[in-house]
């Protein structure tokens, strides 16, 4: 189950072997309100419900009651922010909902809690909105000349 290379076993010289899975699981903050004992993950499409359950039980020693999952299509988007440009499709993924026992609860951890970090993030949001508006204004000015670079003016 692992693609890592290990030295060949030789008689009389037993080697320690560790088998690691080739899967990854990404913990996702839930978009909608869900019970405290349900955890949401993004996993690769090749991973089955049984694989998810074994992964959590064997590696993290978490008791899993039930696993529900569905495959979601990746988003279609333009590679460039303008009207013209190639269309790119993000990779598909499987969204897994893992139910823990009733007595266990999971809350998504708050990463930035300090007032200074909240203030800094609000300033960053304001500056990103401002730069986005400036870019939209630039695109409106260049609407009648698609495909020409900005340095080419008359």
Automatic annotation (TrEMBL):
GO molecular function, one term: structural constituent of ribosome
Subcellular location: Mitochondrion
Domain of life assignment: Eukaryota
GO biological process, one term: mitochondrial translation
Any one GO CC term of the record: mitochondrial large ribosomal subunit
Pfam family, one: Ribosomal_L23
Subunit structure of this chain's protein: Component of the mitochondrial ribosome large subunit (39S) which comprises a 16S rRNA and about 50 distinct proteins.
Entry similarity comment: Belongs to the universal ribosomal protein uL23 family.
UniProt protein name: Large ribosomal subunit protein uL23m
Source organism of this protein record: Sipha flava
Lineage of source species: Eukaryota, Metazoa, Ecdysozoa, Arthropoda, Hexapoda
